[in-house]
Amino acid sequence: MNEKTIGNLFKGDKVIWMVFFFLCIISIVEVFSASSTLTYKGANYLSPIIKHAGILLAGLIAMILTLNIPCNKFSRFTILTLFIAYATQGWVLVAGEVTNGAQRWVEFLGIQFQPSEIAKGAIVLMTAQILSQMQEEKGASSKALLYIAAFCGPLILIIGIENLSTAALLSFIVFLMLFLGRIPKNQLMKILGGSMLAVILALSLVLLVGHEKKEVSPTANQTEKITGEEEKEEEEGIFSSIFHRADTWKSRILKFTRDEYVAPQDFDLDKDGQVGHANIAIASSNVIGRGPGNSVARDFLSQAFSDFIYAIIIEEMGIFGAFFVAMLYIILLFRTGMIANKCESLFPALLAMGIALLLVTQALFNMCVAVGLVPVTGQPLPLISKGGTSTIINCVYMGVILSVSRSIKKKKDSKEQLALQ
Q1: I need a surface site. Which of 11, 77, 109, 317 has the fewest CB within 10 A?
Q2: What's the pLDDT tens digit per position in 92-148?
Q3: In whole angstroms, what separates CA 343 from the centre of its chain?
Q4: Are 46 and 31 in contact (CB under 8 A)?
C-alpha cells in the first residue's frame, strides 16, 4: 500500500487521527491489564483483549465509512436517528436487561447494546440542525429553544429514569450548544435558572423518596429475610418502585457529601469497594506509576476495565501518564474548535463541536469520578474503557468530526486550484 493509498484511506484532520490512535493504543494496553477478573472467569488469558481489539477494529472501519460521508448529508439522518433513539429507549424501559441494578441494555440479534449511546448522537444532531436552520441576523430565533425542548426534552427525561448521569450530561451539552448557536442571552439565563431549580428539586426528591442502601458484607448470610420495617418501606415506596434508582442515587450522594474522617484501618472496603480500591490504586502509583501491566488494584476494583479504568491508568502510568491521557481529550476539543471555526456553514460546525463536547465532557466526568471529585456514576472513559457497541458508536462520532475536517480541506484545495488558474 503506497503513501497515496494510505492518505486516501485516512482522510481528514491528522491531529484528530493521532489523538484517536493514541487513545486506542492506551485502551488496548490498559484494558488488557485491567481485565484480570474477566481472564480469571473465562480461563483464557488472551480472550478479553482479542475481543476488545476486534471491537476497536470494527470501530475503525465504521469511522472510515462515516468520514467518507459528506458532512452536509448528516442532516438527512436526523429524523431517522431520533426515531431509533426514542424506539430503543422505550424498548429498554419495557423489556431492558438489568446490569448492576440499572435497566439500560437491550439485545437485538444476539448483540447487546445501550440505547442511550444512540440517543446522545441523536440529540446532538437534532440540536445542531434546529439551531443552524433557525438562524436570524442577530442569532438563533427565540423559537429554536421550543423546538429543541419538544424534540429532545422528552428523550432526555426518559434516559434520566434509568441513567441520571447521562441525562445530566446531555442537558449540559445541549446548553453549551445553545450558547454556541447564539440563542438569546435572556433565554440562556432562564434556562440556567430553571436548571438550577430542577437540580434542587431532583435532589430533594431523591433524598425524600430514596432509601439509603444498607450494604451487606460478603460474609453475611445472603438468605436473611427482610425485616418488617424494610417490608413496610417497600410497600410504601410507590415512587421508589417507579424510580427504583432513587435508592442508589441517594446512597451515592450521601456517601460523597459525608465529610467525617475515616481512618484507613476503619475504612470498610466491603461497603465502598469501588471508591476505596480506586483511592488505593491512585495512592500506590508513587507519581511515576508501577508500569503497564503491574496494577494490583485491578484484581479488587469492580469495573476496573470500564468505569474506573482511569484509576488503573494512574496506578500504572503515574501522574504524567494520567495527565497525558487528559491532554489527549483537551487536544481533541481544541482541535475540533479550530475545525468548526473554519466551517462556512453553521450545521457542520455545531455538529462537530457538539460531538467533541460530548466525548470530552464524558471523559472529564469519568476522570473526576475516579479521583473522587464527584459521586460515582456509570460513565465509561470514551475510546479507552472496554465496551462493545458504545466503542463503535464513539468511533462513528470521531468519524463525523473527521468528515467535517475533510470537507474543509476539500474546499480549501478547490479554492487554491481556482487561484492558480
Answers
A1: 109
A2: 888 767 666 566 777 766 677 788 889 999 999 999 999 999 988 888 888 899 999
A3: 26
A4: no
